[in-house]
Amino acid sequence: MVSGGKAEAAASEGRLIGGRYRLGEQLGAGGMGAVWAGLDVLVGREVAVKEAYVAQGPSRVERILREARAAARVNHPSVVTVHDVVMEDGRPWIVMERVHGESLAALLERQRSLPEREAARIALCVLEALSAAHARGVLHRDVKPGNVLLGADGRVVLSDFGIAYIAGEESLTRSGEFMGSLAYTAPERMGGRRPGPASDLWSLGVLLFQMVEGWSPFQRESVEGTVGAVLTAKTPETRRADALASVIADLLSKEPDERPEADRVVRALRGAAGEGAGRHDVPAKSGGNGRRPWLGAAAIAATLVLVFLATDGWPGGGRKQPSADSSPTSSHTASPTPTVTAAKGYVHVREDEFGLEVPARWQRHAQNTDGQYRYTKGSYELLVVPGRDSVKAYPDGLIEYQRNDEPELQPYREATWSTASGFRLVEVGDRTLAEGQFTWQKDERGQEVFARNLVLLVDGRYHVVLVRGPASERETVGRIYERAATTYVATESET
């Protein structure tokens, strides 16, 4: 007998799992298990706890453990975070972050279709999550509205990697057994061919079609009818789609080789989402292991633009240029600026060539021979390089400077595994900025570093603001970066 039912769900509320996770109300249930609201009593953190159904044998246990392994391999804001896996009563419980909101399925059930711009925004986040997974050798294989969570804060999260296929590991799907949601499954999987990243992109195309048009293009009343529609039926023409019509049609090509690459889909989605003005998107650099590039855009450069404009914070026209071989100035110390009120937990520091806010009680290091100002605490580091390199020396532009030349990102370029996303180029008035996100493997133990990087072009010279820290602490790195980037002001020359 499979566990579940209202009576058992009610009885489980208040139960302590693994001596640490207190179960609350049941949030939902499916073929693989039930999901509960929970509380990590050790740290006081809200969590979601997924209980495995194991009535059909140990393969169920292995499948839900696979879900945990697959999700844990992918560190991205649009992929649900797995905190822990606990064995209780002979079955696994996956402890995940709690996303407050609703599923895309619930939203579509309530209002059928979405405005094209909102559909593009959601699809872009899902694509970023898929690209991050593909870079790790993970295919999702069950992209559907029920597995897309919409946070109350606007965040979009891809969940349920329960039938994910991990490259290099034997598939758990037995010969003749099919797992997945038929109406969202690519034709090659229906035909028994090996899936690839393009298979997930097909599912994204179905998702886009449904969000914009208000119905699933291949869903039929019977299993046979649905399978036949996926394999042979012509994709219905879109009626409501405008900017997305072409990319939807291309994503739903029957042959995987005919579907567009992720970078083209990214450009189309950004344009439809209203993110294309003033930005030029480029493919991300792939790591040295031959995996597909992670193509996405998680950072929001427009936010930086608005803050800079609102505060008149664009770097000034001049600066004292540090030479590449200048000596560290250990006698110069950064001190709070009395006329500037910093955000809580931060101090405003003023160097000879710039000012910005850094976290309080971080250690300041004297400017080194590479022209870098460093502020550190533990495994976190904030680097500022005010105009060391010139456009004349590196004429290929801001994004190529980040990808290929910026010395501060050399560890990323030399890593055995690395990925990048979020490349954006924005021009406002006579100022230009670009930013990107970078993740790389730090050492043989598998430790990873996450960095956010901003490059400003000021009077023909590159100004760099970079924050890096553990990849497991992306949100912390992001908060520090955003504060530093939006408060950075170059010192004007005294003329």
UniProtKB/TrEMBL annotation:
<dbReference type="InterPro" id="IPR017441">
    <property type="entry name" value="Protein_kinase_ATP_BS"/>
</dbReference>
<keyword id="KW-0808">Transferase</keyword>
<dbReference type="InterPro" id="IPR000719">
    <property type="entry name" value="Prot_kinase_dom"/>
</dbReference>
<feature type="compositionally biased region" description="Low complexity">
    <location>
        <begin position="323"/>
        <end position="340"/>
    </location>
</feature>
<dbReference type="GO" id="GO:0004674">
    <property type="term" value="F:protein serine/threonine kinase activity"/>
</dbReference>
<keyword id="KW-0723">Serine/threonine-protein kinase</keyword>
<dbReference type="InterPro" id="IPR011009">
    <property type="entry name" value="Kinase-like_dom_sf"/>
</dbReference>
<dbReference type="GO" id="GO:0005524">
    <property type="term" value="F:ATP binding"/>
</dbReference>
<feature type="domain" description="Protein kinase">
    <location>
        <begin position="21"/>
        <end position="295"/>
    </location>
</feature>
<keyword id="KW-0067">ATP-binding</keyword>
<feature type="region of interest" description="Disordered">
    <location>
        <begin position="271"/>
        <end position="290"/>
    </location>
</feature>
<keyword id="KW-0418">Kinase</keyword>
<protein>
    <recommendedName>
        <fullName>non-specific serine/threonine protein kinase</fullName>
        <ecNumber>2.7.11.1</ecNumber>
    </recommendedName>
</protein>
<dbReference type="InterPro" id="IPR008271">
    <property type="entry name" value="Ser/Thr_kinase_AS"/>
</dbReference>
<dbReference type="Pfam" id="PF00069">
    <property type="entry name" value="Pkinase"/>
</dbReference>
<keyword id="KW-0547">Nucleotide-binding</keyword>
<feature type="binding site">
    <location>
        <position position="50"/>
    </location>
    <ligand>
        <name>ATP</name>
    </ligand>
</feature>
<feature type="region of interest" description="Disordered">
    <location>
        <begin position="316"/>
        <end position="340"/>
    </location>
</feature>
